[in-house]
């Protein structure tokens, strides 16, 4: 079995690139700015509605640091489907 070639990895966070990295890194947790962009809303909307049931679930570290799981964002997007 042939070895896979190294890939250029681009991290979503801060658009940092890691050349010659042998593994692809995909963040499983993103900050509120990346989350807002990912689901197509403003950061202000996420902040203002964070405690309501209309926004995706979030993680809170150390009392202030808010993060969102990408899997939760995907599930939230899927739940927004309206069939008439």
Automatic annotation (TrEMBL):
Pfam families the record matches: HTH_17
InterPro entries tied to this protein: DNA-bd_dom_put_sf, HTH_17
Domain (Helix-turn-helix) ranges: 35-80
The organism's place on the tree of life at top rank: Bacteria
Name of this protein: Helix-turn-helix domain-containing protein
């Amino acid at each position: 079995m042939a070895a896979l070639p190294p890939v250029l990895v681009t991290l979503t966070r801060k658009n940092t690139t890691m050349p010659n990295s042998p593994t692809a890194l995909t963040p499983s947790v993103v900050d509120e700015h990346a989350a807002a962009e990912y689901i197509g809303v403003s950061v202000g909307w996420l902040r203002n509605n964070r405690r309501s049931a209309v926004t995706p679930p979030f993680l809170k570290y150390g009392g202030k640091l808010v993060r969102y799981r990408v899997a939760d964002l995907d599930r939230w997007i899927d739940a927004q489907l309206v069939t008439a």
